[in-house]
């Protein structure tokens, strides 16, 4: 052998000072706060929207569509990262609302949320606003 006791190296690697890696749960990466004002339901979304968190947001959006509100505002101003999974989800929900009594409006601005929607041309498909106040009008 090479003169080293392998058990020494194994104990260093597996020692208590090496924590097990842990992926954050979707609930730690994404926060959705609901606000109901008369017939408008606003989902204030904060954190990361990616392949891990998009399914959780999909549940929130599905519940919002079933709430009976005539207007659903999806506020993305607190989003720090918007991946393709989140963009696809917005497009899918927009398609659902086309035959639904609920109208969806998206609040997105800046390089994280507004710019990707603009670059992809989705600001022409989605009803995109720069603020929640503007989306409520």
How would you sum up this structure, described in words?
This is STAS domain-containing protein. It comes from Mycolicibacterium arenosum. The protein has a five-stranded mixed β-sheet with strand order 1-2-3-4-5. The protein has one domain: Transcription Regulator spoIIAA (2-Layer Sandwich), CATH 3.30.750.24. The mean pLDDT is 88. The chain is globular. By secondary structure, it is of the alpha/beta class.
Blueprint of the fold:
Blueprint: H1 6-13, H2 26-29, E1 30-37, E2 40-49, H3 54-65, E3 71-82, H4 84-97, E4 103-107, H5 114-119, E5 128-129, H6 132-136
Parallel strand pairs: 2-3, 3-4, 4-5
Antiparallel strand pairs: 1-2
Helix pairs in contact: 3-4
CATH topology: Transcription Regulator spoIIAA
CATH 4th-level superfamily? STAS domain
Estimate percent helicity.
25-40%
Structural Rg: 21 Å
- Can you identify the CATH class? Alpha Beta
Lateral arrangement of strands in the main beta sheet: 1-2-3-4-5
Apparent shape: globular
Give the biggest beta sheet: 5 strands, mixed
Pattern of helices and strands: HHEEHEHEHEH
Beta-sheet strand percentage? 25-35%
Helices, by number, come to 6
CATH architecture identity: 2-Layer Sandwich
Average pLDDT metric: 88
Indicate the structural class: alpha/beta
User: What's the end-to-end separation, in Å?
Assistant: 77 Å
Number of domain modules: 1
Give the tally of β-strands.
5
Low-confidence stretches: none
Pfam family, one: STAS
Region (Disordered): 1-21
InterPro entries: STAS_dom, STAS_dom_sf
Protein name: STAS domain-containing protein
């Amino acid at each position: 052998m090479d003169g080293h006791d392998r058990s020494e190296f194994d104990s260093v690697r597996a020692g208590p000072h090496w924590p097990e890696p842990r992926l954050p749960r979707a609930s730690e990466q994404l926060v959705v706060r609901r606000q109901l004002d008369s017939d408008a339901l606003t989902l204030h979304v904060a954190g990361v929207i990616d392949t891990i968190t998009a399914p959780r947001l999909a549940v929130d959006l599905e519940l919002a569509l079933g709430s009976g509100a005539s207007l659903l505002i999806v506020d993305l101003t607190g989003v720090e990262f918007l991946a393709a999974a989140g963009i696809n989800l917005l497009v899918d929900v927009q398609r659902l609302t086309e035959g639904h009594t609920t109208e969806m409006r998206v609040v997105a601005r800046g390089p994280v949320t507004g710019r990707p929607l603009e670059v992809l041309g989705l600001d022409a498909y989605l009803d995109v606003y720069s603020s929640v106040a503007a989306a409520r009008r």
